[in-house]
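REVIEWER CHECKLIST
Item 1: Sequence provided? yes
Item 2: Single chain? yes
Item 3: Sequence as submitted:
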Amino acid sequence: MDYLQHPFESKRHTVFSKKGMVATSQPLAAQAGIEVMQNGGNAIDAAIATAAALTVVEPTSNGIGGDAFALVWVKDKLHGLNSSGPAPAKISVEAVKALGHDKMPVHGVVPVTVPGVPAAWAELSSKFGKLPLSEALKPAIRYAEEGYPLTPILGKYWKAAYEKFKDSFTSEEYQSWFDTFAPNGQAPEIGEMWSSPGHASTLKEIAETEGRSFYEGPLAEKIDAFMKEHNGFLAKEDLAAFKPQWVEPVSANYRGYDVWEIPPNGQGMVALMALNIFKKLKEPKWQSADTYHEQIEAMKLAFTDGKEFITEPEAMPVSVEHLLSEEYAAQRAGTISESAADPVPYELPKGGTVYLSAADEEGNMISYIQSNYMGFGSGIVIPGTGIGLQNRGADFSLEPQHPNVLQGGKRTYHTIIPGFLTKDGKAVGPFGVMGGYMQPQGHFQVVTNTIDYLMNPQAALDMPRWQWMGGKTILVEPNFPNYLAQSLARKGHAIQVATDGGAFGRGQIIWRNPDTGVLSGGTESRTDGAVAVW
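Item 4: Structure as written out by the authors:
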């Protein structure tokens, strides 16, 4: 891809290499991936190594007890993996309401769903890896055993979580969180060493059993026992029944490029819907208030419809095909005016997270994401194991008529999404932006920066971002141009300037030159990101 030069200057330079590249939000994790690649692994082995290391070196965003998704390019074909777990079989709207909740709680044992991360590692290793899973997990085990010093952004979020949890996590079920992540009665400081022997033991057990212990062995028994003790719903039977799902990725063609996402239950559809709507409008112009306005309005419509309709595919009231159709995009584009609107759902036709990307010299590429959700997830840590459990169930609705209503064995609307770009059937490469509901908005902005303005990977990531917060409220970064913010305000947008960049996601990009095979990568300047190369 040829890159234009813009007045906008990145905080970092794009990184280039030939033999291999790993980009993620933590330098030690990126290095773990390159280490495994240099020891004979491919991009998929490197991604597993990096993902496992991230559970150790960035526990503020992900963990062994989270979910995962991947888009994998191998032998000129894109494969999709959905390793998000369902709600426990015994949970129900009635059971949750009987506990005194009128909506799904955010923390505790109730919102815990089946974790998909260990199964994702094992599945990717078995299907596409060159090395045993035990080799890929070695760096993560070493980091957990020997410890590592906290990086600046990691330390910032760790401390913020501790300050919040020390006042709200007062019941016995949360004690193991403090034992694990605040062992001396406080959060570790930036630059301070932290280790987790229990985490290391768990990773060893996962490595030795290729993940089976987590779902059918001693680790599953420990999870089951803790949940029973604290009146949780997740049981060993739920763990034993779980299997990751290989899925056909979905795409939208945006100005000659195919943008790929995982299909529902993930929210990647939102980015594709927004791109389809936006391309129906005027030609984008560099740093134009009109273009920003149309981008925001397209995203608002896509997000409103996504939240209304996306859940398990069989429970959706409208098909994926229709939401990605030209008919849908044209109808929604036709509702956009010169002024900011309060979006309403489409009228149906009658009838915390960590992201990483990796690539190798053989042409293999992977876009991978995993998360515990909302930082440390549920706040539940299984004693002595380092397993922090996710709280994905918090996104279920307790309204019986809602498509995403809670049901035992059902997967919820999911925020974490990996992205991938191709052109004319050839891989351009993996990309992603983590950060809850910022993710499809980040995907949209990275793709438009790349394709409309031919930005290199680092510039596309570093561009000031905006985020729709609901209604007419738009949050912009501190370095978002003031004249554009004022112009958008005159169009009716309620502009709010963020105090820092933490709300705008953290992304990575790797593109491949189709002629030379040279890799170019960018990493997020909003976090402790790194691009490791070989």
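Item 5: Key structural point noted by reviewer: The radius of gyration is 22 Å.
Item 6: Recommendation: ____
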